[in-house]
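Lab notebook: predicted structure, single chain.

Context: the supervisor wants predicted structures on file for every construct in the current expression panel, including those that have not yet been purified. This is the next one on the list. No modifications to the sequence; it matches the entry in the shared construct table.
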Amino acid sequence: MLIQLCRIGQNAVTRVTPGGTAVTSFSCAYNVGFGAHETTQWIEAEYWGERGQKLAEKLTKGRQIVLTADDLCVETFQRSDKTTGAKLKCRVVNIDFTSGSSPQANQAQ
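Prediction complete. Output recorded below exactly as produced.
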């Protein structure tokens, strides 16, 4: 189980499986470490079902959320320069929106 304050990196996209289940996908990021050792960890999140579909229009780039997720796994991929990269993937359990987390508020900072 992961509970983490994150910032959405791209607008959510919803698709429907052949079985009729909605799956809303988005990427989000959070910082790990401190000072010179701080890095950004990206997560590809999937929110299955009607609630994810209803929240999709609010899951926009730059918005800050508290992500609760499970089924966390590492997936490897090949970058364009032929090196191997890794990313986290998860299934969303819940999303809480933080106050003042609208993208417009973040752009003003």
